[in-house]
Amino acid sequence: xxxxxxxxxxxxxxxxxxxxxxxxxxxxxxxxxxxxxxxxxxxxxxxxxxxxxxxxxxxxxxxxxxxxxxxxxxxxxxxxxxxxxxxxxxxxxxxxxxxxxxxxxxxxxxxxxxxxxxxxxxxxxxxxxxxxxxxxxxxxxxxxxxxxxxxxxxxxxxxxxxxxxxxxxxxxxxxxxxxxxxxxxxxxxxxxxxx
Length: 195
Hints:
With 195 residues, the protein is of the alpha+beta class.
């Protein structure tokens, strides 16, 4: 492992299990099948997720992390926006940027090469791969990068600065030396210009 704070683990599956335990998950969780639920929209009750990953209702911040984790498990992104969905209700939730924040990145080396593992503020742990790709957007005015990883469905996490800098430290120039790239699970992802 390249992250000095990374837990000691012999395999990628051991690393994932350790990170899930550290995130407060006794065992891996399967999110509810929100993609199968199609209740009518009940409206807007003033819910929002701000850029820093905090959850709010009508200007009041949620103070119970357990409630945030519960609600995050029933979050869905449809073509027209984000919703909290149960089999019987569907309510609008505004999302300022991405619904989750990637708070940690770890790298495991094995016989197949590196695997990057991202942990979110709500305890999701994903391996960057075909199903969970990285993408980077650059602010046109400042050039500042924002790096995202798909968590599930259309839901993404924006990486906070520390895990982004971990990715940069693990990156290398592409074949032409113009972009920095990172490798995970046999895939190559661009982090943007190497300057």
